[in-house]
Amino acid sequence: MPTTLPVFFFSHGSTAMLQNRTAAAAYWEQVGRQALEQGVERIVMMGAHWETMGEKILVSANPAPPKQPVAWVDPARYVDFDLNPDLELASEVVGLLSDAGFDAALEPKFEQIHDTFMILKWMFPGGKSLPHVIVSHNARFDPHFHMKIGAALRPLRQANTLIIGSGGAVHNLYRNNWAQVIRYRDNLAQERPPEQWAVDFGEAFKDVVTQNTGPALRRGMARLMQHPQYRDAQGTDDHFMSALFAVGAAGSVEDTGKPNYAGAETWELLNMRNSQFQFGDWPQEPHVTPINAASAMIEVDAK
Ligand SMILES: [Fe+2]
Fold first, then answer.
1. 19 CA from centroid of ligand 1 (Å)
2. Is the pTM here over 0.90, yes or no?
3. Protein residues within 5 Å, CB atom, of ion ligand 1
4. Coiled-coil annotation: which residues (predicted)?
């Protein structure tokens, strides 16, 4: 039996999550540490900010992608980070997607956006990412289309490749308290409790992940788009597609009975719930990425 690596879904939150070391950032660091320890060689990620029109799916293939500027973050925190893109893997991903019937192509003019390089920066504090590629999502926001992309790439889990979705479990930019970050550069203050819809939808998301495995996980995640509080929790669909991508890669018949886990969580801007999830076990102990309370202490403007 080949080793099968877990899949992750990360809620990346606002750009300010790159500035401060939060519980979520400490968790991303821990996932990166485990990736290195457990022999991960490459990463495939779908974010929330690179979308393609029509039927097309693009795969990052720029050997030196520029990083798009990040609001509220000192450029010194990310400009020198070595993204280490993997062009060979990009061609492999296009091949797998094409074999599955997708209209997939390489994008040599790709520019990297904070939703993906923020995660890599925290995962690899040494300053250089593991080789990786980014897969675009599709602007029609069809849940099944995105699950099929994940399913098509599932074999990579058995080829030392970590599959990650970067989006948001509760992510509605129209319902955040932006005043606190605009006036005080403070994205983490919670002056009052989050609104009930943010709590409720976050719990529903967590229940779908932790109470389902295999194809039931896929069905549950797709069904969340019909949840009465979905539109409260997702102002637009773009930050939900990578969750469907993740369960596409983690919800096959072979995944039935293999547990999925809720990880660290950081509330931000009152109503944004940046919760993290692991699908399936790491091959070696610890099989579940620990939520380390000590390392999860918030360090504002961590260097
Ligand atoms: Fe985002």
1. 15
2. yes
3. 48, 115
4. none
